C-alpha cells in the first residue's frame, strides 16, 4: 500500500476535502501550504513549533463553551499522543517578542518532534479521530494559530 506522501495529488485532494482550501486565521493550512509540506524531499524527523491565540470569551456562558471546546480538543489530543510517535519537547506561555516583528501576539507555544512528515500527517491530519475533534473544537477555542515545520540539521 502506498503511503500518503507517495501520491501528492491524491493526498492533497483528501486533505483539502477535509480541511478546506483556505487558512481560516491559520487554523488549517492552505492548499499551497499542504502542497509544499507534501512535496518536501525531507524524510527524516521534523519538529513543529506551534503558536496559539485562544479566543477571548464575550461573557461567562461563552467562557464555559470555550473551556469545554478546549478541554475536548486536549482530551482527544492527549489520548492520540499516547498512540502516535510524537515527543512533546515544550509547552508554555508566550511572553513576548524580543527580536523580530513585535505585532506577534500569542497565548501558548508548543514544540513537538515527529519521526517524519508522513508520521505527522498520519497521526493528525489524516487521523479520523483527530479530524472529528479538530474541525469542531479548534475553531471554537482558537482565534488564530501558526504551525511551523522544521527539519533538524543533525540527527
Binned, the helix content reads 40-55%
Strand content: 15-25%
CATH architecture descriptor name:
2-Layer Sandwich
**Could you give the order of the helices and strands?**
HHEHEEHHE
Structural class: alpha+beta
- Integer tally of domains: 1
Number of strands: 4
Number of helices: 5
* End-to-end separation: 28 Å
CATH domain fold name: Alpha-Beta Plaits
Structural write-up:
The protein has 155 residues and is an alpha+beta fold. It has one domain: Alpha-Beta Plaits. It has five helices and four strands, in the order ααβαββααβ. The protein has helices at 8-19, 31-39, 60-83, 117-125, 128-141; strands at residues 46-54, 87-93, 108-114, 142-150. The protein has a four-stranded antiparallel β-sheet with strand order 2-3-1-4. α1 packs antiparallel against α2. The mean pLDDT is 88.
What layout of secondary structure does this protein have?
Elements: H1 8-19, H2 31-39, E1 46-54, H3 60-83, E2 87-93, E3 108-114, H4 117-125, H5 128-141, E4 142-150
Provide a short characterization of the protein structure.
The chain is of the alpha+beta class. It has helices at 8-19, 31-39, 60-83, 117-125, 128-141; strands spanning 46-54, 87-93, 108-114, 142-150. The longest helix has 24 residues, at 60-83.
Characteristics of this structure?
four-stranded antiparallel sheet; alpha+beta; 155 residues; 44% helix; Alpha-Beta Plaits; 5 helices
Amino acid at each position: 500500500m502506498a503511503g500518503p506522501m507517495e501520491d501528492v495529488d491524491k493526498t492533497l485532494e483528501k486533505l483539502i476535502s477535509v480541511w478546506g482550501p483556505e487558512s481560516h486565521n491559520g487554523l488549517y493550512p492552505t492548499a499551497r501550504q499542504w502542497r509544499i509540506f507534501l512535496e518536501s524531499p525531507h524524510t527524516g524527523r521534523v519538529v513543529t513549533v506551534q503558536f496559539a491565540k485562544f479566543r477571548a470569551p464575550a461573557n461567562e456562558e461563552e467562557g464555559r463553551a470555550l473551556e469545554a471546546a478546549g478541554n475536548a480538543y486536549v482530551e482527544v489530543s492527549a489520548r492520540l499522543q499516547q498512540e502516535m510517535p510524537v515527543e512533546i519537547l515544550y509547552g508554555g506561555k508566550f511572553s513576548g517578542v524580543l527580536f523580530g516583528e513585535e505585532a506577534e501576539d500569542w497565548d501558548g507555544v508548543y514544540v513537538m518532534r515527529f519521526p517524519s512528515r508522513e508520521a505527522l500527517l498520519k497521526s493528525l491530519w489524516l487521523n479520523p479521530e483527530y479530524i472529528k475533534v479538530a474541525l469542531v473544537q479548534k475553531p471554537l477555542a482558537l482565534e488564530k494559530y501558526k504551525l511551523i515545520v522544521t527539519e533538524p540539521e543533525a540527527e
